[in-house]
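hi support,

uploading two proteins for the ticket. first:
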Amino acid sequence: MAKPTLTISSKNYSSWSLRGWLLAKFAGLDFDEVVVGPDDASARAEILLLSSSILVPCLRHDGATIWDTLAIGEYLNETFPEAGLLPADRIERAHCRSISGEIHSGFTTLRASLPVNLKGHFPGFKVWTRAQADIDRIWAIWHDCLDRSGGPFLFGPRGMADAMYAPVVTRFVTYDVKLEPRLKAYADLVMAMPEMQEWIEAAKAEPEEIEELEVEY
C-alpha cells in the first residue's frame, strides 16, 4: 500500500493546510507532505480567500482522496477511532461538529482582516468592529466548551475542534489580541503543542512572502 500523502500549501499563510495537517498528526497518521507553492495560481487563490480550492489540504490514504477539512477530520476519526478526534459522548460529539462547522464556514471578516501570518507580529494592531464581533463569538465558543469539558482543551483531550481553531490562536498571537487569563491559558496550550511548534518552525523557514498578506502601517 502506498504511503499516505497530505497536500498542503504555505505553512506561514495557509490556515486550512494547518488544520488538515494537525488533524493527520493528531490521528497518528504517518504521511508524506506534498507542498504546493504559493506561486501556484490555485494555491494562491485559496490562501487569499478568493476561492474554495480543492487542492489543499488533500489527504490520500488507502485509496481514498479527501480534500475538505471537515471531511478529512471525519474520515480520520472513522479510520482511527482510538485517536479520539471527536468526543465519545453523542451530545458532545454533536457540539464539536457544530463549532467545527461554524469556523469552517463563518468568521469571514476575521479571516479577511487578520490573515494568518506566522512570521508576522503586529503589536497595537487596530481590530475593526466587525472583526471584533467575530472575535467575541470565538471567545464565547471557547468559554462554553471549557465550561462543559473542564479543559484543558475544548473538549477535554485535544481533538478536531482544537485543530480547527488553532489558526485562530495564531491570529491572536500575530495581531496581539489580548485574551483574558482563562482563554490565554488555552491559547498558550495550543501554541505549545509539539505539532504546532514543528509547524511554526517550518513556517518561519519559508522564503516566500505574499505581499497582500503583509500588514503595512
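and the second one:
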Amino acid sequence: MKIAFHGAAQTVTGSKHLITLKNGKKVLLDCGMYQGLGDQTDALNRDFGFVASEVDVMILSHAHIDHSGLIPRLVKQGFRGTIFCTPATKDLTNILLMDSAEIQESDMRFLEKKRQGMAPDLLQPLYTLEDAKKAMELFEPKEYGAWYDVTDGVKAMFTDAGHIIGSACVHLRIQEDSKETRITFSGDLGRYRDVILRSPEVFPQADYIIMESTYGNSLHEDIKDTPEMLLDWIRKVCVERKGKLIFPAFSVGRTQEILYALNQLEAQGVLPKIPFYVDSPLSIEATDVVKRFPLYFNRQIQNVLKNDDDPFSFPGLTYIKSVDESKALNFKNGPMVIISASGMADAGRVKHHISNNIENSRNAIVMTGYCEPHSLGGRLLNGVTEVGIFGVEHQVNAEIGQIRSMSAHGDYEDMSQWLACQNPQAIKQLFLVHGEPDVQVAFKQRLIKKGFVDVLIPERHFEIGLA
C-alpha cells in the first residue's frame, strides 16, 4: 500500500491525498483547489499529479473549496467513482461547486477579450457548470459514526471534525493479506468549545495519521472574546469615525459565526443601530444550508434556539443579492458594516468593496481568518502601504486589522487535544499536511515531545509505502 500527497503539502491549500492498495485500487482523500498562490495557482490546478480516470473512489472531508474545488475537474478528466461525504457536506459542496464553475466560465469570458499571445489551453476553464452538475451525481452521503464499505477491502467512518457544518475526520480500515491497516485523515480540525459547532470527536486508534497543521505554532485568542472584539471595531470605526467597516469572511462558517455573534450583541441591547449588510449570494445560500442541520450545533446554540428561531439574523441586517444592490453600497454615506466573501479578499464582491474604501482613513478592513501570504488579505496584514486591485494601485489608508479568535482551524492546543485519544507508541507514522513549512516544523517538534516518534512533512507529489 502506498500514499501520495498531491496537494496541501507544505502549503495550506489544494488538499489531495491518494492511497493506492496492493490490488491496484485507488482511494482519493479530498480533491481541493489551490487558492491564493499568485501566478502559480492556475498551473497547480491543471495538474493533479495522477490520472483521474484511475481513481476508483473518493472521500471528501468537508465542503471548503481548497478541499472540494477540483472535483468537477476530476470528473471532467474521467473519474466515475462514488464520492462519500456527510449529508451537510454534500449540500454545501453543491452550492460551492456551482458558484466556482460560474466563476471559471466568467473568468474565461474575460480572458477571451485579452487572448492575444495566450496559450489555447489557458483559455479553457478548469471546469464548467455542466461538469459540476455531473460531479454532484456521484455523491453518496453517510452519517457520522457508522462504518461503511468504500471498495474491496476498505471500510470508512466519519467523526465530527468541528470545523464547519458537516466537516469530518475520515477513518479507514484497509484489509490486505489478512492484515488490517488503520488510517485516519483529520481533514481540517475545528476548535473545542466553538460557539456554534460541536467539538471534534474522539476516534479509534490509528496506525497512520494524516493531519492538518495550519496553526501548529499558534494559540488563538479566546472564542468568548469574539463578540466583544466585534463590538470594539464597530464602535471605533462606525460610531466614532462614522466610517465603513468591512469584514472579508468565508461564505461557509465564518459568515455564520459573525452573524451569530452580532445576534447575541443585539439580544444584549449593546449593538449600535447602524446598517449591517451581508453582501454575498453564496453566503446567503450557505447560511440557509447551515440552518437545515441544527443537530450538528452544540448545546449552547441548541439552548439559544429554544428562544430564538433564527440565531443568524437580527434587526438592521440586510442581505444583498443583486450586483446593482452591491454597487449601491459604494454610494451610501455614513457608518455601516459590510460582511462579504471571500475570506482572503482575493475574489468576490469584497474585493470591490476594499477597492472602493481602502483609501479612506475613516474606514477599516478586518480579516476574520487565515489569509495565505500572497493573497490580498495576506498582503494587507503584512503591512503594505500600496496595493494593486483590478489593475489600479491604491494607497492603504484604511485601518487594517484581524480577529484571530474567529479561526475555524484549531490551534496547537486544539490539535494536541484531538490527538490525546491516541497511543503515540502505536502510531507508525504521522504525516503533517495543510500548513506552511515553518509552522509544520514547529508543530513536528511539539509532537515529538509528546511521544510521536515518526513525524513526516511531505512535499508535493511525495509518495511513500506503508508497512
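thanks. also noticed: The first helix runs from residue 41 to 46.
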